[in-house]
Design a protein that fits this description.
alpha/beta; 8 helices; 10 strands; 19% strand; elongated; SAM-dependent_MTases_sf; Methyltransf_11; transmembrane; S-adenosylmethionine-dependent methyltransferase activity; Methyltransferase type 11 domain-containing protein
């Protein structure tokens, strides 16, 4: 199989429908969807304040701390020497720098959990050229429903009679997601159900569109993210997404890590028009949108040329 990798400028537009994101700020989004993994944000903020306090103490009590070092460790810090002052200054600088990094990480985590997820949902929706012809869409790992409701909103805008199904591992999550759909005014377009993403509870060739957002990398985490077993589980989910997608249908996945293995798996599944978006920093790591189309003919003879729109992957 020959592989063509084509570089594009950041402003170049992949083949997709044009969808302008609604003019909403993060407070509106947060009011509806809240935030996942509060414990992670609190952990980052707690340690950021802790290191800030530590650096402030080093600044206010610099001389007493130097004297403490000289008296406690006379073999390492001679009285009146510069070693104690260097150690105290270095430790204070490290504490201050650590607090800054932790505050940045906390800010990025909060932004990624709220505003960025909404923005990326609009981008994912934009990868589908004609929503008016979509009768049934699937959101794998729908979570709080940010992407799910964005799809439903697009169906409503185009006057489609279609529906979007949200699948999640937790029944409690699906019930919460239905409430957010009603708050967004798209409840009549949304259905949620509990199920195992590794064995989707749907028949073959059911959906015109299959999407997923920052979910696939969590599959198989019980084995460890970088194990062969976890990779096999993720590939199994991709295979299931391809199975339930109608011939000619579009699949779009936004995820962290593992993008090259997703592309390889999609090639093995004979998917067409595989495209990888520019890199977007989410949760302090790189993320990409991978889009693809299922061949109109289910049985493809031989391996053809696969064209990748691989933009800014490094």
């Amino acid at each position: 199989m020959s592989l063509l990798i084509r570089a594009h400028a950041l402003h170049s537009t992949p083949k997709m429908g044009k969808t302008s994101p609604p003019n909403r700020d993060w407070t509106q989004i947060y009011a509806i969807y809240g935030m996942d993994q509060w414990h992670t944000l609190l952990f980052l903020l707690f340690h950021a304040f802790l290191f800030s306090l530590l650096s402030l103490l080093f600044l206010l009590y610099f001389d007493p701390f130097c004297s403490f070092l000289e008296q406690t460790f006379p073999l390492f810090f001679a009285t009146g020497g510069g070693a104690a002052r260097f150690a105290a200054g270095f430790t204070g600088c490290v504490a201050a720098l650590s607090s800054v990094c932790l505050f940045i990480a906390a800010g990025n985590f909060f932004y990624s959990s709220v505003a960025l997820q909404h923005e990326m949902a609009q981008r994912i929706v934009g990868h589908v050229s004609d929503w008016s012809s979509v009768k049934l869409a699937l959101d794998v790992g729908c979570g709080r429903g940010i992407l799910l409701n964005s799809v439903a909103t697009q169906l409503k805008k185009t006057g489609s009679s279609g529906r979007v199904v949200g699948l999640d591992r937790s029944k409690r999550t699906t019930l919460s997601t239905l409430r957010t759909a009603n708050m967004e005014g798209v409840g009549e377009y949304v259905t949620c159900r509990e199920g195992d993403v590794r064995s989707l509870p749907f028949g073959d060739n059911c959906f015109d569109v299959v999407v997923s957002a920052v979910f696939l990398h969590t599959v198989g985490k019980e084995y460890g993210h970088r194990t062969v077993e976890a990779a096999a589980e993720r590939m199994r989910v991709l295979g299931e997404m391809g199975r339930v997608l109608k011939p000619g249908g579009t699949g779009v996945v936004w995820d962290l890590h593992h993008v090259p293995e997703y592309v390889r798996r999609l090639q093995e599944l004979r998917m067409e028009d595989i495209r990888v978006s520019e890199r977007v920093t989410a949760f302090m790591v790189s993320s990409h949108i991978v889009s693809f189309r299922k061949p109109s003919q289910q049985h493809v003879a031989g391996l053809g040329e696969v064209r990748l729109d691989w933009r800014f992957f490094n």
